[in-house]
């Protein structure tokens, strides 16, 4: 857990980079700091591993005032990933990744095993990449090594300063997806700096929107997008925040429609009767194990002999429950589908239609209509603990 208590940083030339900052990152939470260039994000972050000392206020990591910690020991407990990665050029990927375990005095073998494990976890096969040197990697691969290296000694806290800033947008999105997957496994307490609101919204459990040296709003991405606390935040998150909101609103079971369901081995006459009884134009088709097989249109069942299997069509457009609405929208477009199936593991839950997608978006906006004001949030986070 990282906690800022009335932290101010004034540089020698009189610049106030951070002004009376109080907020907290809970254990296992990922907080993104987002704001325009020069608003104090990097200064905030570097105060956590004591690369910069605050002028006043306290920072606690796991309940300990870091001003009293030895900076070198502190840094070994805190993973740090930066944009320029800073890999050692004369060391291999495996050696780079095992740097901190090595410094911590781990046995060489154990350190290398751990490094190999981490490389695997960030999507780099250690048997392919382990012996390469940094200049034999792409930008995206170097970033992954940076993340693996920061995680190698299993630090509880991770600081990430624009870690994906130097790669092109496609690679960047890929790295973000992988990092989310990784974070769901390792659940570190993460402070993540970015100037990109899309990235902040996508990755953060909560986001802190910085004005000049101050937090303008500190809340979940959905609330920041749905109920910006100030005109500044509204301006920063942009006019297309409805669209951005699609990427942070998950599909919930209550959003789904329940079309008629038939099974592969059902006689067509039974399927036709069911469709007629429900006045539906199509039905979802499941197999014996209740897994999604596809769908069947009413006209294919009407007056025909045989079983549903003979006329069922495969359905490729499906998503797991909890996937963001944005993904649902893009899946609909990709398959040119008027609906998509939503599954819980293998189990069919229902279908999402464009109308239901719109309702889900409204639901999420309404849920945030009474968004919490910025002052309350800051007081709450400090007073809660
Ligand atoms: N060593 C320093 N001496 C004086 N002023 C500094 C120093 N380092 C940073 N600043 C100033 O403090 C303010 C905050 O800088 P900081 O690097 O924290 O911003 P940032 O939000 O991370 O910006 P960016 O997105 O461009 O990296 C800026 O006005 C910057 O010019």
From TrEMBL:
Q: Where is the ABC transporter domain?
A: 2-237
| UniProt superkingdom | Bacteria
User: Is the keyword ATP-binding assigned to this protein?
Assistant: yes
The molecular function terms of the Gene Ontology recorded here are: ABC-type quaternary ammonium compound transporting activity; ATP binding; ATP hydrolysis activity
InterPro entries linked:
AAA+_ATPase, ABC_transporter-like_ATP-bd, ABC_transporter-like_CS, CBS_dom, CBS_dom_sf, Gly-betaine_transp_ATP-bd, P-loop_NTPase
Q: Which GO BP terms sit in this record?
A: glycine betaine transport
Q: Which UniProt keywords apply?
A: ATP-binding, CBS domain, Nucleotide-binding, Repeat, Transport
Pfam families linked to this entry: ABC_tran, CBS
From the record, what ranges are coiled-coil? none
Q: What class of enzyme is it?
A: translocase
EC number assigned by the record: 7.6.2.9
CBS domain segment(s): 312-367
A single Gene Ontology CC annotation of this entry is: membrane
NCBIfam families from the UniProt entry: proV (TIGR01186)
> Which protein family is it in?
Belongs to the ABC transporter superfamily.
The name on file for this protein is: ABC-type quaternary amine transporter
């Amino acid at each position: 857990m990282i906690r800022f208590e009335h932290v101010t940083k004034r540089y020698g030339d009189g610049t106030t980079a951070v002004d009376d900052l109080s907020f907290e990152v809970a254990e296992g939470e990922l907080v993104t700091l987002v704001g325009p260039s020069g608003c104090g994000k990097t200064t905030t972050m570097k105060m956590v591993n004591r690369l910069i000392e605050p002028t006043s206020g306290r920072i606690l990591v796991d309940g300990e005032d870091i001003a009293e910690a030895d900076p070198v020991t502190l840094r070994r407990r805190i993973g740090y990933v930066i944009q320029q990665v800073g890999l050692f050029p004369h060391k291999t990927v495996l050696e780079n990744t095992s740097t901190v375990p090595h410094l911590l005095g781990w046995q060489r073998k154990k350190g290398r095993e751990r490094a190999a494990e981490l490389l695997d976890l960030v999507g780099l096969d250690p048997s392919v990449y382990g012996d390469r040197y940094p200049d034999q990697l792409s930008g995206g691969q170097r970033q992954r090594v940076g993340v693996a290296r920061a995680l190698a000694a299993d630090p509880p806290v991770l600081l990430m300063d624009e870690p994906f800033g130097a790669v092109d947008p496609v690679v960047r999105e890929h790295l973000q997806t992988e990092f989310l997957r990784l974070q769901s496994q390792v659940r570190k307490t993460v402070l993540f700096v970015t100037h990109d609101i899309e990235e902040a919204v996508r990755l953060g459990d909560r986001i802190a929107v910085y004005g000049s040296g101050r937090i303008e709003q500190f809340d979940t991405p959905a609330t920041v997008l749905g109920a910006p606390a100030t005109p500044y935040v509204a301006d920063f998150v942009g006019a297309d925040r409805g669209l951005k909101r699609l990427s942070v609103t998950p599909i919930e079971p209550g959003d789904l429609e329940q079309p008629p369901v038939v099974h592969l081995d059902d006689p067509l006459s039974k399927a036709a009767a069911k469709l007629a009884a429900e006045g539906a134009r199509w039905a979802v088709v499941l197999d014996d194990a209740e897994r999604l097989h596809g769908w069947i249109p009413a006209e294919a069942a009407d007056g025909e002999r045989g079983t549903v299997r003979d006329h069922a069509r495969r359905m490729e457009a499906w998503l797991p429950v909890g996937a963001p609405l944005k993904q649902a929208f893009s899946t609909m477009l990709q398959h040119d589908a008027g609906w998509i199936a939503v599954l819980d593991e293998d189990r069919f839950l229902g279908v999402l239609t464009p109308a239901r997608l719109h309702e889900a978006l409204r639901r999420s906006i309404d849920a945030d209509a009474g968004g919490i004001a910025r002052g309350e949030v800051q007081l709450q986070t400090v007073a809660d603990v």
